[in-house]
Amino acid sequence: MSVTDPAAPADTGLSYDLEGKRALVTGAGRGLGLAVATLFVQRGASVALCDIDEPAVNAAAEELGDEAIAVHCDVTSAASVQGAIDATVGAFGGLDVLVNNAGIEIGKPMHEISEEEFDALMSINVKGVWLGMKHSIAALAASQGAIVNMSSVAGLGGAPLLGIYCASKAAVLRMTQTAATELRETGIRVNAVCPAFIDTEMVARLVDPFEAATQAEFGDVVALKQGRLGTAEEVAETVAFLASDASRFVTGSHYVLDNALTASVM
Ligand SMILES: NC(=O)c1ccc[n+]([C@@H]2O[C@H](COP(=O)([O-])OP(=O)(O)OC[C@H]3O[C@@H](n4cnc5c(N)ncnc54)[C@H](O)[C@@H]3O)[C@@H](O)[C@H]2O)c1
After folding, report:
1. CA–CA separation, 78 vs 68, rounded Å?
2. Which of 63, 113, 154, 163 is the most exposed place for a label (fewest CB within 10 A)?
3. Rounded to whole angstroms, how far apart are CA atoms 22 and 149?
4. What pTM was computed for the model?
5. Taking each helix axis from N to C terminus, what angle separates 163-183 and 115-122, rounded to the nearest 10 degrees?
6. Is there a domain that residue 99 lies in?
7. Nearest-atom index, ligand 1, CA of 31
């Protein structure tokens, strides 16, 4: 059996831009999802911005112009996810990229988390990613497309106040690896990104509970562990790479964006 690609030229000519790509981004009303959708449009893609927050996603799509549409979607509902994929394919004629970004945090010690909070977190962060992948396979197989799942450095280890969140992001990594293997023959690539603390509303919401529980200044901990907060635009750049043809041989991987947070044991 030959394991070389006879069609692969020495100069691949693989492009980092997203010209003509048709993308669906969940949780695109604000934060990382909005930064991803914005960069995708700048790089030439048409983007369906999907979010449970209808006013936010409508305003965001309006701002991005003709290459963006807003789709109301709750990633915890199979029917809603299928509807968002159908709306994207209907508007753009197909789907090349799915970014499973929607997620929530709950900043509490594990023993204080209620059953309802546990279920909500797992439903959005884990089931939502699974539903996105499950319902997009037919459309993505037709285009040999790419899936990028939003994990976190919290998926790589434990963190105070984020125990169930850590569990949910670890699950995203394991689903990413399995899907990449199962889908390789379809041509669909599946990767994940693992950002550390990024400057979004999610992190702003964690400051008070973190400081109350640890008696430490959140800013000091961030400075010590990761130098500074990352920006949503920095995360979007890596998502764009994984969505582009330049990452053609990358699947089943996760990219860590943490300014050396996880490189240090001190
Ligand atoms: N901000 C960080 O430091 C950081 C770091 C690592 C990973 N992440 C992950 O990145 C993703 C985005 O985080 P963010 O900081 O932009 O958060 P955010 O809270 O600012 O935005 C999350 C978006 O997801 C939407 N959303 C929530 N529930 C939804 C649902 N059921 N269906 C559809 N949309 C829903 C919200 O309306 C919101 O627009 C999350 O998965 C998060 O876990 C964030």
Report:
1. 23
2. 63
3. 17
4. 0.97
5. 30
6. yes
7. 16
Atom of ligand 1 nearest to the CA of 201: 20
Per-residue pLDDT of the chain (266 residues; tens, 9 = 90+): 678 766 665 677 788 999 999 999 999 999 999 999 999 999 999 999 999 999 999 999 999 999 999 999 999 999 999 999 999 999 999 999 999 999 999 999 999 999 999 999 999 999 999 999 999 999 999 999 999 999 999 999 999 999 999 999 999 999 999 999 999 999 999 999 999 999 999 999 999 999 998 899 999 999 999 999 999 999 999 999 999 999 999 999 999 999 999 999 98
- CA of residue 192 to ligand 1 center, whole Å: 15
CATH assignment at residue 32: 3.40.50.720
Q: Which domain holds residue 26?
A: 22-196+231-256
For residue 27, the CA-to-ligand 1 centroid distance in Å is 6
